[in-house]
């Protein structure tokens, strides 16, 4: 049984940084971060395969970095130079198929965490 628990969200000012963590008990394979703002669809932010290959959405490339501690089974999202439009609930997920195209497809997500809120103010 997979259990995902996010932490690390909070409120920061524009240009600030946060690091999100996801304790991923029982999870293996492809994992990803998604986010959802009020009134918008949930969207993929970044993913990492079991071998360490990463995929990143264009909107955060160069600012956000996904990584995974395989020893502790913790997924991370380092978020730098945050902008107001990064404000959202961030979710950790396991993804059934991880390719440059499929990692962000919602119907391929097997498990979701409960989310952690990130607020960026100017």
Quick overview of this protein structure:
It contains no helices and 11 strands. The strands form 2 sheets. Strands 2, 4, 5, 6, 9, 10 and 11 form a 7-stranded mixed beta sheet that branches. The protein has a 4-stranded antiparallel beta sheet with strand order 1-3-8-7, with no helix packed on it.
Architecture overview:
By secondary structure, the protein is mainly β. The protein has no helices and eleven strands. The model has no long low-confidence stretch (mean pLDDT 96).
Order of helices and strands: EEEEEEEEEEE
Question: What is the typical, i.e. mean, pLDDT?
Answer: 96
What's the main sheet like?
A: 7 strands, mixed
Estimated share of beta-strand residues: over 45%
Number of helices: 0
Task: Return Rg in Å.
Answer: 13 Å
Fraction in helix: under 10%
Derived structural class = mainly beta
Low-confidence stretches: none
**Annotation, overall tally of beta strands:** 11
What is the end-to-end distance? 41 Å
What gross morphology would you assign?
Answer: globular
Q: Please identify the oligomeric state.
A: single chain
Walk me through the topology.
Elements: E1 3-7, E2 10-13, E3 18-25, E4 31-36, E5 43-48, E6 54-56, E7 64-69, E8 74-79, E9 88-95, E10 109-112, E11 116-121
Parallel strand pairs: 2-11
Antiparallel strand pairs: 1-3, 3-8, 4-5, 4-9, 5-6, 7-8, 9-10, 9-11
Which key terms come to mind for this protein?
122 residues; mainly beta; four-stranded antiparallel sheet; globular
